[in-house]
Design a protein that fits this description.
It contains 9 helices and 11 strands. It is α/β, with parallel strands linked by helices and 233 residues long. The strands form 3 sheets. Strands 7-2-8-1-9 form a 5-stranded parallel sheet, sandwiched between helices. The chain has a 4-stranded mixed sheet with strand order 3-6-4-5. The protein has a two-stranded antiparallel ribbon with strand order 10-11. It is globular. The structure holds (2R)-3-sulfolactic acid.
């Protein structure tokens, strides 16, 4: 039987053998929600970078430079990390170079996996269907915040476990804990997340509408996948 596990922080990746697993990287607020939105609006590809300066130089090669540090757009970059910046026609067919505080760091750490896909509430059903039909056991990697666990990524992981519970057995207790948490929260995710650390951070930046948007389920049916270090659909 295929199994499912959850890595609650990228700092725990060393505990998991991912060479035969499909890894779902999630950073609900807001990196993977942005990436899914960008693909839904026609970007050609997204190259994720852990290192900011390596990302910056991609501008000279014709890439749109995107991302943030500590939630704020990087000075000199073309775009920040709000999903609303990735809904215009101008991004159609473009190649993005993307770096974020946590999301692209988690993608970097997942690179040894059999395959890496990108998850968010916005494409939850598409992710679940793909995992259900796939042959591999699954690891959901939560981007967290600078190595610490966060609630929103854990809730997404719990949603995936909940939807696959009749087909994929849990590998340890993290999937059980996340599923119970999602069951408690699912009727009002926004309220459940009201006191969470990242929501407080985002409130300081005055971007509540990003928060609301990133919690929407199944807005898009795209599945970004990592191919040779580049995300494509
Ligand atoms: O850390 C990340 O990858 C970001 O998504 C964080 S923020 O939402 O832009 O603050």
């Amino acid at each position: 039987m295929k199994t499912i596990d959850i890595c609650l922080s990228p700092e725990l990746m060393h505990l998991y053998d991912v060479k035969d697993r499909t890894v779902v990287v999630v950073d609900i607020l807001r990196a993977t929600s942005c990436m899914v939105t960008a693909f839904a609006h026609g970007v050609h590809s997204i190259t994720p970078f852990a290192d900011l300066e390596q990302c910056r130089v991609m501008h000279e090669k014709g890439y749109i430079t995107s991302g943030e540090r500590n939630g704020e757009k990087v000075p000199g970059f073309d775009k920040g990390n709000s999903p609303f910046e990735y809904m215009n026609d101008e991004i159609k067919g473009q190649r993005l170079a993307f770096t974020t505080t946590n999301g692209t760091q988690a993608i970097e750490k997942a690179k040894g996996a059999r395959e890496v896909i990108i998850g968010s509430f916005l494409n939850l059903s598409t992710v679940v269907k793909y995992l259900l039909l796939g042959e591999n056991s699954v690891l959901v990697v939560c981007a967290g915040w600078k190595g610490r666990v966060n609630l929103e990524d854990t809730l997404f992981a719990g949603a995936v476990v909940e939807k696959l519970k009749d087909y994929l057995g849990p590998d340890c207790d993290a999937p059980l804990a996340a599923r119970h948490l999602y069951t408690l929260a699912k009727d009002n995710l926004a309220a459940f997340l009201g006191e969470s650390s990242h929501v407080k951070r985002l409130n300081r930046l005055n971007i509540y509408r990003d928060f609301e948007f990133c919690l929407k389920h199944n807005e898009y049916a795209v599945l970004p996948r990592l191919r040779n270090g580049v995300l494509v659909v």
